[in-house]
């Protein structure tokens, strides 16, 4: 097994810091041990940033840029549920849904997105009114009349 010198050096340094960390008496700390503890924490944090806890006195939030490190700071949501389409697309500051354009009267749709139109078109929802239209068409949209009573003989004769 071939191991590079830098990896061996790193392992020895880590071992030294861990043994120093384990030997610290945190019930009766003095200034020298505090410095060793902080140096140990800084070293481990530098080498393993994901596994070490976020310590307030060691955090470097002042010099944080807009890149990878700042993505964990995004704690407030920009979008919430839309009352019209039900998707999480309603922008709180703009007060506008990015999926259906609520509160605009017209539903947001663009013909360049054929699949999106297919997902939103008639027949993908309940169709409370339209699903009854073909049946009403057969009776010429007659309303308010009593249905003719069915007889046992007519059902048998029809078959």
UniProtKB/TrEMBL annotation:
Keyword Ribonucleoprotein: yes
Record flagged with keyword Ribosomal protein: yes
Pfam family, one: Ribosomal_L37e
One GO BP: translation
Keywords annotated in UniProt: Metal-binding, Ribonucleoprotein, Ribosomal protein, RNA-binding, rRNA-binding, Zinc, Zinc-finger
GO molecular function terms noted in the UniProt entry: rRNA binding; structural constituent of ribosome; zinc ion binding
Superkingdom of the source species: Eukaryota
Protein name in the entry: Zinc-binding ribosomal protein family protein
